[in-house]
From TrEMBL:
This is Putative Flagellin Flp1-like domain-containing protein. It holds the Pfam family Flp1_like. It comes from Heyndrickxia vini. The chain crosses the membrane at residues 20-37. It comes from the Bacteria.
Amino acid sequence: MKKLTNWFKAFWKDEEGLQTLEIMLIIAVIVVIALAFRDKITTWVKSLLDFGDSKVGQFQTDSGK
């Protein structure tokens, strides 16, 4: 148990550990935002894909003339 406590203390004091912690917190915030707005994000992506599909279809129809 003492070994684990010493490891946590060393990790907390380590400068690189703080950078890792910051990155982990940023990733956690992004995941929470993605989960909170999951429905809106999926609707937005589907609309982008539908728009792209219609433009590709329109291009194929125009080039076939």
